[in-house]
Amino acid sequence: MKIAVIKEIYPGETRVALIPANVSKLTQAGLTIAVERGAGEAAGFDDERYVEAGAVIAADRTEALKDAEVVLTHHGRGDELDALLPHLTRGQTLVAMMDPLAGPQAAQKLADAGINGVALELVPRITRAQAMDVLSSNATIAGYKAALLGATHSHQLFPMMMTAAGTLKPARVFIMGVGVAGLQACATAKRLGAVVEAYDIRPAAREQILSVGARPVELNIEAEDTETSGGYAKEQSAEFIAKQQQAMADVLAQQDVVITTAAIPGRKAPVLITEAQLMQMKPGAVIIDLAAETGGNCELTEAGQTVIHHGVTIIGPKNFAATVPNHASQMFGTNLTNLLMLMAKEGKINWDFEDEIIRDVTVSKDGEVVNPRLRELLG
Ligand code: NAD
């Protein structure tokens, strides 16, 4: 079974879908890997290392895709999917991030073209699938980098320092939304010496906040029904969000850096910081909004931009994991390798829908959108 790794199409993308160590593992399992020339270069993996690991280097995208059963890339939706589709042939399987709940049209396009689609965001949150969970990998990187970006843009140093020029108070960092990214941001800001506080609607987050040495912020409002059966946050009512914004204003006014990560799969991110709250914040404060790509947790965030309003710097990173291409590719490639080892049997993809992981990630198969959630969204 031939697997193609193409050079990423997304503008400015630095990552690659498999690294040489993944190639070794997959070739030992009997798979053939074709890597488009230069695909790993920006992530620090040159063609020679892929060859040493057992891959074949393809001169261009067409050669990489020829006779491939499976195609791997990071971005499988929007303009990138439109650019890739004419190069794919019926019966091929595309494995990529597709943002299927926000944009189920990608699954329909794949079905119409006779391409089998595997959307990596749909890996279920079960223990067996943890090693295949690219969302967690990307969130780990984003949380870490958010703390560093906050430290870089802050007008203050993070740690307390006793110097000959006097004592410097530690910076105060507040994390809103403590899933994988938020917890990593807490831990990183703590390691840098800041005083770290955090808040999440899920009661279970409290213990995790304490476990990395941060302080949970308690609001006297209770969210109901905070978690879906799939382990994701549930969308809260407009009334709850309004109460939350009000209760949060005092906490925000004391912070030097705020990192927001609150996300609801397939929905616009909840607004946790309004312009009115922002006006109460300290001049020179910094907001890193990790929900920028899904609408932003701050009302004034602009995705992919750094803007300053009322003296507060608001940064809305896009495609953030690509700022750490080497480790991000290692994590993504390892997640994909684990998924492929599950799905490949006797030189073919084994579409065993009795397996919860395979069933959940498959969005299109044999010309049909097969995922029930997406069928419902598509109407
Ligand atoms: P996420 O990216 O979906 O959302 C980020 C966080 O924002 C969540 O913790 C959520 O509760 C929070 N949030 C949503 N609305 C909010 C609001 N109005 N105010 C404040 N916070 C709000 O989260 P995630 O990183 O996917 O993690 C969610 C949970 O799932 C975590 O406990 C994580 O450890 C767990 N998880 C489990 C697995 C697995 O078992 N395989 C994999 C990944 C994550």
TrEMBL record:
GO terms for cellular component: plasma membrane. Residues 4-142 form the Alanine dehydrogenase/pyridine nucleotide transhydrogenase N-terminal domain. Keywords: NAD, NADP, Nucleotide-binding, Oxidoreductase, Translocase. GO terms for molecular function: NADP binding; oxidoreductase activity; proton-translocating NAD(P)+ transhydrogenase activity. It comes from the Bacteria. Residues 151-316 form the Alanine dehydrogenase/pyridine nucleotide transhydrogenase NAD(H)-binding domain. CDD domains: Rubrum_tdh. It catalyses: NAD(+) + NADPH + H(+)(in) = NADH + NADP(+) + H(+)(out). Its EC number is 7.1.1.1. One of its GO terms (biological process) is NADPH regeneration. SMART domains: AlaDh_PNT_C, AlaDh_PNT_N. Gene3D superfamilies: NAD(P)-binding Rossmann-like Domain. InterPro entries: Ala_DH/PNT_CS2, AlaDH/PNT_N, AlaDH/PNT_NAD(H)-bd, NAD(P)-bd_dom_sf. Belongs to the AlaDH/PNT family. The transhydrogenation between NADH and NADP is coupled to respiration and ATP hydrolysis and functions as a proton pump across the membrane. This is NAD(P) transhydrogenase subunit alpha part 1. It comes from Ferrimonas balearica (strain DSM 9799 / CCM 4581 / KCTC 23876 / PAT).
